[in-house]
Design brief:
Length: 396
């Protein structure tokens, strides 16, 4: 589909963080009186809410669509119960890391079976096989998060060892802070975690902060065309993607955060930047486009787990940079971009979202910068930010 672009200007609120909401929804199953403030129409939140509602009605089969986080959180939640359950999901989810989840469940005495695009879980509740639960961390932090957010009301102390080189630690730290804010006592040191038995949720109400990842996608559009003001932007942050504020300053993008309002304006000239994305890999697609439009060299690194996302984001964005006429060298954990931006091509740039919402956001940034873009699937943004195109005011 092609885009017809008008000038971008927006002042207003954004939905609550889907990452925080999904963690809170799981937590609420252990304390039904917990009040969650904030909402989102993102597919990832909708499917989680529906699944947990089905669970409360005694159902045993669930559909999680393309929500990898939701799938892992729900699987671990079901494993706390006695019974047999089935979770189905989009086939693309089963192309992402799955063995780690199965290994964790096995250590907890839970039987699992993969069949097509579903997993069957048979459990009698958590029954530790050993003294320490080894949770892989080399390809995703979500397995550790799924264990943590389901460690309420245990009849035993849980000792967890986070194995492997750690990625997306920012999201793990966010999960730890949410658990602590809810009332969990957690002892964490050098990759090991101790969760004492009988942990209870003591917080009556939890407000989920504005989704920073969604704010970032709009801010990137504003940085190349227009202006943006997001009200109720969190001044203290749980979400690791808030690192984009510092990155923008280095790139010469005008911004200011005062009294809870984030203001972003178009940059006169974008500057190349060096960024370690280990703790915030989801910034990569849009940031690649900004660096492809920037004057001078850029180096984005530290995120080998980019290949395990909704698409192989590393491979896809390297291809986009080449289409943009930038010199690029890719390695296992990122890209090096050299030279200066080129004049947008006259012919349309035909791009595929590859079923990945963050590639669609990146395509919008490129279009806002004056490139003729044709994107095969604009609706994919519904996974995390269905209001995206409406806020931009673009016809698609």
């Amino acid at each position: 589909m092609g885009f017809i672009v008008s000038d971008f200007a927006y002042i207003g609120q954004l939905p609550a963080s889907k990452s925080i909401l999904n963690r809170l929804l799981i937590a609420r199953t252990y304390s039904p009186d917990l009040k969650i403030v904030g909402s989102s129409l993102a597919d990832d939140v909708v499917v989680m809410d529906q699944a947990l509602n089905d669970l409360s009605l005694g159902k045993a089969e669930f559909e999680m669509g393309k929500s990898a986080t939701g799938f892992r959180l729900l699987a671990m939640r079901l494993s706390r119960l006695s019974g047999q359950f089935k979770i189905s999901a989009h086939e693309s989810l089963f192309e992402r890391p799955m063995n780690e989840l199965l290994k964790v469940l096995f250590q907890l005495g839970v039987e699992t079976e993969l069949s097509g695009n579903s997993i069957e879980i048979q459990s009698q509740g958590w029954r530790m096989h050993g003294d320490m639960l080894l949770v892989p961390f080399a390809r995703s932090s979500q397995f550790a998060t799924a264990v943590l957010m389901n460690a309420w009301n245990l009849p035993f102390d849980l000792f967890v060892s986070l194995g492997g080189q750690k990625v997306s630690e920012g999201y793990w730290r966010m999960s730890l802070q949410i658990a602590k804010d809810l009332g969990m006592q957690v002892d964490a040191w050098d990759g090991d975690v101790r969760i004492p038995k009988n942990q209870q949720i003591t917080t009556a109400e939890f407000k989920a902060e504005t989704d920073v990842s969604s704010a970032f996608s709009l801010a990137c559009v504003a940085a190349v065309s227009g202006d943006l003001s997001i009200v109720e932007f969190p001044e203290t942050h749980l979400q690791p993607d808030v690192a984009f504020l510092e990155i923008f300053e280095k790139m010469g993008i005008p911004l200011r955060l005062t009294s809870g309002t984030l203001k972003v304006d178009k940059a006169e000239v974008l500057k190349g930047v060096q960024v370690d994305l280990k703790n915030h890999p989801d910034l990569f697609p849009c940031l690649v486009v900004l660096c492809g439009l920037a004057k001078g060299d850029s180096h984005l690194y530290g995120a080998p787990h980019l290949v395990f996302k909704e698409s192989n984001r590393l491979e896809e964005m390297v291809n986009w940079l080449k289409l943009m006429g930038r010199d690029v060298i890719s390695n296992d954990d990122g890209v090096m971009i050299s030279g200066d931006p080129v004049t947008p091509r006259a012919e349309p740039l035909k791009l595929s979202a590859k079923g990945d919402h963050r590639l669609a956001f990146a395509a919008a940034v490129l279009k806002a910068a004056g490139w003729r873009v044709e994107l095969d699937d604009s609706k994919v943004v519904s996974k995390s930010f269905p209001e995206f195109w409406q806020i931009l005011g673009w016809s698609i």
